[in-house]
Predict the structure.
Amino acid sequence: AALSDDGMQSGRIMVYVRLRPLSKMEKEAGSRSCIRIVNKRDVYLTEFALETDYLRLKRLRGRHFAFDAAFPENTGQQEVYDTSTAELIEGVMQGRNCSVFCYGATGAGKTYTMLGTMQSPGVMVLALKDLFFKLKQQSRGDDYVVKLSYLEVYNESVRDLLSPGRPLVLREDSKQGIVAAGLTQYQAYSADEVMILLQRGNQNRQTEPTRVNETSSRSHAILQVVAEYKVQQEASYVSRVGKLSLIDLAGSERALATDQRTLRSLEGANINRSLLALSSCINALVEGKKHIPFRNSKLTQLLKDSLGGACQTAMIANISPSNICFGETQNTLHWADRAK
Ligand code: ADP
Ligand code: MG
């Protein structure tokens, strides 16, 4: 990948895989693991029915993938954050726009990774904690502002998760780029207050009409954090703005089967336009194309200023170990492999 003026890698997407533990229910149902992670970066996917010696041999020959890092099932939230996201906070402190995505099938651990629980906060909260720490350390006094927006893209409509109501209209603003008109900007003073805010916001995500009390697998949740601060440069202080976007994507099931078809032919089909459009943009970026098709969906319009160029991007692909999820896991690993 090309190196920019300050020696940072640009254009390159860092790709990580996180394996979640088998759930109690999966264990009780006799699920076995079809994933092995070696050296914290190599992932082996094997079809399970294989326990004889001959088959064990075949199992070791399973499909192999290598990523920037792969997190085994016992990896804690802090380690996932430190490896995947901490560096991007440095980017925000240099006035960059950075983004982290969680990609994967429903139930693979995206929301756990991004939001987490009260006891084990995820990337969103750990990133804010780190950001406040660095702002206190590196900026002039308390002269900084952190603003949060939490929004959802569901069926190509954009909603404010901090203040639910009617869909928001996206507008092109000459200074700020694409903005959602009327979106709440919550001024945060510490990471501690944020968890409750985000948990509440997450409960506002659209639910599947057929599945009561279950967060929709088709909703993308986007936390946007804008930090405005002053840093010392030679004898004076200069203002800087950095932006961090943390995205809990819709479930990737169904997306890949139709991946080869054009977006137009998918109109009205029961698939997720924003997720496909994001894949197209990532593929175009990885291939070094000049034209990146941001206009094709609401999600990619919202992320236009946070992908490519001097932006830093990390992708965390979440997978389940269960042999029952073999097909989805394989799709996720292939998708992540192409984002490298
Ligand atoms: P997704 O958002 O991808 O649909 P979730 O994050 O909701 O999936 O995870 C599904 C279930 O698995 C949840 O009950 C969650 O708490 C649990 N889970 C996911 N990842 C982990 C993990 N790394 N450690 C422990 N439990 C996890
Ligand atoms: Mg989820």
Q: What stands out?
A: The chain has a mean pLDDT of 87. The chain has ten helices and 14 strands. The pocket of adenosine-5'-diphosphate (ligand 1) is lined by residues 20-21, 23, 104, 106-112, 318 (CB under 6 Å).
